[in-house]
Every structure is written in C-alpha cells, then in structure tokens.
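Model it.
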Amino acid sequence: MKIYLKILFIFCFINSLSLSQVETRKQPDLDVPTLFFDLMGFAPDSGTGSRLDIYIQVPYENIFFMKEGLTFTANYELTISLFDSNKNLIKEKLWNETIKTDIYEETISPRHYKLSQQSFLLPSGKYFVKVQLRDNQTKKYINAMKSIELRNYSNTKFSTSDIMILNKLTFEGDKKIISPNISGNVVDLPDGFHVFLEVYNYLSADSLQIDYEILKERKALRSGSSKHPLQLTKNAIFFKVNSDELPMGEYILNVIVSPKHLRDTSEENFKFTVTKPFSIHWRGMPTSIIDLDAAIDQMIYIENVAELKRIKALPLNEKVIAFKELWKKKDPTPNTERNELMEEYYSRVEYANKNFKHYIEGWKTDMGMIFIIFGSPNNVDRHPFDIDSKPYEVWYYYQLNRQFVFVDESGFGDYKLITPIWDIWQRPR
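Modeled.
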C-alpha cells in the first residue's frame, strides 16, 4: 500500500494540480532563476550621507547555460531600482553579465556563482531596493526586494558600517582578501565565520571591544568578545563568530562595538550596536526544514515507519546523511543537488501547518494528510451551515477520480476524514 501511495504522490507532483478554492497555494516555479542579494551602508569617502553597496549572487545552477563548442555560456540581465521611503523611483541601473565555463558540472552546481556589486551615494534615510534578474536565454524573470536604513555619518564621533558576513578571509602579505557571504547561509562554515565591518572613530580611543551574541527567537545561544587596535577615522575590523553545532534555523547576530582607553572620560559612553540576520540550512534541503527530527516524522505518509524510527535514532551527522539518502532515492533529477520532489513535499507540509492546524499540528490532521499526499484539490464543496447536517467539506480530485469527505463532528472546526482510504496508518495524535 505504501508503494502505491508513493507512486500516487509522485504522479500528483509531476502533473501540475488544477486550481481549487482556499486550499490552492501558489505552486513553486522550479525553473525560475534564483538570486541572492545583500545591502550594506558605509560612510562615504567624502561628503555627507552614505554609500550603499549592493551585492548580487547568482548561483550557476539557476541560470541556463548554452553549449558553444567546448564552452558553456550563460547570459543574464540585472536591474537595480532604488526607491525612497515613499516608494518613489529615484535611481535605476541595468547591465548584462556573462558566465563561461568549460566544466559541465559547474553549470548545475549551487556552489559556483557569479558575484556582482554596485555602489550608490545617497542621503541618509530609508530606501527600498529592488533587484531583477532576466535570464536572456529562457526569458524568465525573478524579482526580489529589501529595505535599508542609511545612517548620516557626518554628525557622529563614533559609528560603524553595516555588517558583512564572510565566506572566506585570506591574506596576501599584509593585504586581506575577503569573499562575502551574500545568501546569509553559513552551513558551509562549520568552524564559525568571519565578520567584517568598518569603524569610524573621531574620539580619543586607541582600541575597541567587540561583544557579540547569537540570538534565536530573542534567546542568546552564543556569545564572544575580542579587542582590536583603533586608529583615527576609518578602521577595517575583522572578527570571528563561533557558530559550530548550531541547529538549523534563522538567527540574529547582535554586535556591540565599544571604544576603549579614552583620554577624554566624557566620551566613555559611546557605543554602537549593529545586527545581521543569518541562517543555517543544509544544502539540498528546503529552507522550511528547521527541525530534522520533525522533518523525518513528517515523512510518515510516504515512508515506512520502522525506517523513519531507525534514522531518528542515529547520531546527528549520520542522521543527516541517511535523511538525504532517503530523499535521493525519490529524486526526479538525481544528477543535481536540488530535489524538486522534496521541495514540493515540504512546501505542502508547511502549507498544511499554516492552514489546517487545530489542537495538533496541521500536517497531523486529516485534511493535512490528504493535502500532503494528493496536493491541492481541483474543487472544494463546503457546507458549514446546513440545517440538517454537521459542517462538512468535500474535496474533489478529478484527475484521480476521487473525492474525500471531511466532517466537523465537534462543531469546533476539527474536520475528520470519513471517506475510506487504504490503510490510514496510525499517525501521532
């Protein structure tokens, strides 16, 4: 029976589902190119206001490469649009980028990417930044937008730039070579990551102290401190953050910069605080997975319970490997690091948790189960106020010639499946 349901789920995934009512969610377009971008505010070299640096990272795997002889070539167009606090367009820049490689494996790799950078001099204030990527081969677009508050550096005695997380910090003699982390995901940096920021000092301090803490849901999980020599005006500061063995999830890096050894004691209260979000998400896994044990439990509808228990009992490193291998067997495109079936499955789990939660998590409800296995129904027939019956819903799946009836026996929105289905295995309740 489980084999049948696995085949049925894959069938439902490959054949795009028709529209229903509330249960329809936007199906992810797995072919749309993806990009990451980050914003940083710096003090300008001269004048007032701020310098806004925009970094754009485009993974090779998300761009179409055309083979030309022995070379693979990709070409795309980038557009940066700047809007003021009222979302009025104030500046725009457009240019093209080209990627060439002789190695096919690089064209499908998320670890290879093209990094682009643009800078703008702007007055202090809030701005919205929109980045648009257009793949010139497929003609597909992707848009992303972020906001930033740019500080006025001209009237302060002590301040800092925004924070940049680094993928790598290397040295060529006395020169530091940095590789910025634009995605914010530090999963490939298991020993911790370096941070860069500029400190602008117009005090009598000759050193500074960096205190940081890593926050998750406002709870401090890690902290550290370091001291650095300080010169007048601009200082490039680097320090390392300990992030080893942190679980998957979203985090905030909170950094307090304090000047030290001031000759003028009236300046001792100068401190500056900056924050930066970052994440830890294992490659090849949807970002919605933040608890590996929960993600394993959620496979109950398409995997053997004994196998799931075996994987959960493994040490963390082995558990990650076993989980990935389990999904690799189901991967419709096994030659790439991306597993579209896993992405679709956990997007359904995420939707179920948001929309079918009652006294238990949405994925454990009867509606959540049917939605995860079969996806969005083609049509939903609702009867919430019929005089002669309890509230009920009928979900229709025309391509499967099936319908499922849910009845709210309690009258509190706890809809139970009453349609017979092969082996409703014992789910946790």
